[in-house]
Write a structure and sequence with these properties.
- 17% of the residues lie in helices and 25% in strands.
- By secondary structure, it is of the alpha/beta class.
- The strands form two sheets. It has a four-stranded mixed beta sheet with strand order 1-4-3-2, covered by helices on one side. A three-stranded mixed beta sheet has the order 5-7-6, covered by helices on one side.
C-alpha cells in the first residue's frame, strides 16, 4: 500500500492581470496614464476604465465617490501602492507630464534617481531611469 496522498484537484493557473486605482474620475485618470504609457482603452463604463493591449496586463481605474488622495509624504492618508515608470531622461519626462496634468510635490527623496509626481487624482507615482 502506498503512503502517497495524491492530490486529485488541479491547482488553478494564476497570472498578473492589472493594477486598479481608486479615483474620483476614471476617464480623466485613464486619459492621463493612457497617454503616458501609450495604452488603449480596452473597456470603459461610467465607473470603470481599463487600459490594456490584447494579451497583456493593464491598468484599471475605478470610481470611488469619497476618494481621498494620499497626503504623501505626510502619512495622514497613506498611499497604498504606486507605479514606477521607466524613462530615459528624468527632466524631459517630468516636464512633459507636468503639462499633461501631473503635479510636482516639494518632497523629493532622491531626485537624481527618482522623480515623484502626483497624477491628476493626487496619487503618487515615480519616474526612474533605473527600470
Amino acid at each position: 500500500m502506498s503512503t502517497e496522498n495524491p492530490d486529485t484537484t488541479a491547482v488553478p493557473a494564476f497570472r498578473y492581470a492589472a493594477v486598479t486605482f481608486d479615483c474620483p474620475d476614471p476617464a480623466e485618470l485613464a486619459r492621463f496614464y493612457g497617454e503616458m504609457l501609450d495604452l488603449p482603452v480596452a473597456y470603459e463604463s461610467d465607473d470603470f476604465v481599463f487600459l490594456a493591449r490584447e494579451g497583456a496586463p493593464g491598468l484599471g481605474f475605478s470610481r470611488v465617490a469619497d476618494h481621498r488622495p494620499p497626503t504623501w509624504p505626510d502619512p495622514t492618508v497613506e498611499k497604498r501602492a504606486h507605479l514606477e515608470i521607466g524613462v530615459t531622461d528624468l527632466d524631459k519626462a517630468e516636464a512633459h507630464l507636468l503639462t499633461r496634468g501631473a503635479t510636482h510635490p516639494t518632497h523629493q527623496p532622491s531626485p537624481d534617481r527618482w522623480r515623484v509626481l502626483l497624477d491628476p487624482s493626487g496619487q503618487p507615482f515615480c519616474l526612474t531611469t533605473l527600470a
